[in-house]
Amino acid sequence: MALLEIENLHASIDDKPILKGLTLAVEAGKVHAIMGPNGSGKSTLSAVIAGRPGYRITEGTIRYRGEDITGMDPEKRAQAGIFLSFQHPVEIPGVAFTTFLKSAINAQRKARGEGEIEITEFLKKIKQAARDLEIPDAMLKRALNTGFSGGEKKRAEVLQMTVLEPTLMILDELDSGLDIDALRIAAEGVNRLRSPERGFLCITHYQRLLDLIVPDVVHILVDGRIQRTGDPSLALELEERGYGDFIPAQAGQ
Amino acid sequence: MGTSFPLRQGSKSDMTSPAHSSRSAEALPPFLYPLPADTEPDWLKDLRARAFDIYHAHGLPTRRHEAWRYTDLSFLAETPFTPSPSVTLDRNGLESAEILSFSAPRIVLVNGHFCEHLSNLSALELGISIQGFDASPPDSVRSALERGSLSRALDTFPMAALNTALFQSGLVITVEPGVAIRTPIHVVSLALSSHGPHFSVPRIVVHLQKGASLSLVESLGSLGAEPTFANSVTSVLLDEGAHLSTTRLVRERPDSSRIETTLADLGPDARYDNLTLVFGGRLVRNEVYATLNGAGAHAEVRGIYGARTGEHVDNTIFVDHVAPQATSGQLFKGVLGGTGRAVFQGRINVGRGASGTDGQQLHKAMLLSRGAEVDIKPELYIYNDDVACSHGATVGELDEDALFYLQSRGLTREVARSLLVEAFLSDMLEVVSHAPLREALESSINTWKQDVLSAEHPS
């Protein structure tokens, strides 16, 4: 059984179909990359896996560890171990980053029937992760994502991911808005989390992210469906030839 | 004036008789009784006579009055209120009131009457005088009550005029020149219904002499099974360089109402900070009128409020720039749930002589439900070219993107909503430097927040 199994998924927003029969499986221990042009449905895919409201699923199922999560509340999915790294992390003034992260950990622990995290253990974890991601202490004291640069926001996403210890990670364009140094730091953070129990879905436009987070499987998403699945050489092929060859006849018109 | 001071029957002995029977045939407007005894000094009789005439001519404000267009008082006239008797309260009674809990010298007023046994003034510093009065105010308040701007204000504020015509009990706080009082003073003023619905007219007078400073904390609320209506006035007189900081929590019971009028006069370089929190009550109007009479004066009027189903909160602020180089700020944030109603009317007046004025105003409301409603009326009247004034208002809902972000980390929707409401209000308490007070205020806001959020989305 794969960690994540998506079958014939149709999703629309404002009655406009975006995903049109998408089928995909992500195995534990593997990094799956999804590449696709603008408007192919990449962000919709990450949103519906995480349970974002506003999308209508008209057909198909999303299963996580064998359980149908298609209609599940987003917090329940997070508590079950799904983490979405946002393409555009939301700025929330007035909510302190550290306080927020502690609340999130405790909400997830509570859902698992565990007690609250010891404050010393929490601080140790967050400090270690911040050091690895070259995040200054001052940033931890600021409001959530507020006034963070593009690179800081993405590193803060990886920090949350590190501390929350999810099982399935969806990285929605981790590379957007990052310079090469920040991208390297963020990618190293992701690579540290790779383990036999964990699966990754890495959504990107560009090969350069996949040089740093080397995938096991590459999928090409065009017009709401996976058009091709292959090994990492598929990404290189794409880089050379563009998406033209993968656009189905009726969508290219 | 003064010679025609109206005397009517039953000022003392009829205090507990039903509202309508003690009125004379010529039909006085509601609440205009009982009148004080005729033994007061002439200056006070003159003032009361003028106040009586103003309210008598004006009557209880209706929505036809511009300043009351969004706040309907008609239910007050329909409730059989009688003047509150002089009642006392024991310690258990006081503890059942939702007052701020922090350690400070405390003065308790019940229906305006000073309750010595509940007050604790043993730790008062030198240079401050606190005096409760129970029949007529002492002569020491004369300068505050007769001060031009405070006296003229009665023409504009009929409910303050009503209070001035009637008040017999309250509190006078005076700080001597140059004295900085370090410990905050906590005034608890409660309206208590004992035999049916009661109305009360407490008066507080605060006079800070030249260079004095004081931090005043007020817990205003109500007790008892029946409705109460407090029509309360605070007169604030700040001499040159004086600094008063007032932090006020209003938590009325669901069927109780309060019209709280603050009339402040600021001398040169004086500073007045007013932060008023309103969380609960059928109708609460927080009306602040600050006159910047001295060059370099600064008034900072702020507020946080919440309104739920059955509640109406009205903040009406009027900052009058008379002197040059004075500055003022108005900042209000409110959260509305259910079918809660709120009103914000913020006025900045810049007179001909008020060059170099800086006046700012901002009101932000967050609506948690579609049934809630807020009316906003900003007004700038500027009669001088050399000014910097601004006003702004926003009305928003909880940000769905932010809610999803928080939920995607495992926080329940309820916790996420609570965090966002807290975040919306979080910067408002930064001005409260006294940590125990700030914590007490936070705890009041949290209690209210949990109530309103669970009412929106019962789990």
From TrEMBL, chain A:
Keyword field: ATP-binding, Nucleotide-binding
Gene3D superfamilies, per database record: P-loop containing nucleotide triphosphate hydrolases (3.40.50.300)
Pfam family, any one: ABC_tran
Segments forming a coiled coil: none
SMART domains: AAA
Single GO MF annotation: ATP hydrolysis activity
Ranges for domain ABC transporter: 4-248
Record InterPro entries: AAA+_ATPase, ABC_transporter-like_ATP-bd, ABC_transporter-like_CS, FeS-cluster_ATPase_SufC, P-loop_NTPase
SUPFAM superfamilies linked: P-loop containing nucleoside triphosphate hydrolases
Family: Belongs to the ABC transporter superfamily. Ycf16 family.
Protein name: Fe-S cluster assembly ATPase SufC
Organism from which the protein derives: Phaeovibrio sulfidiphilus
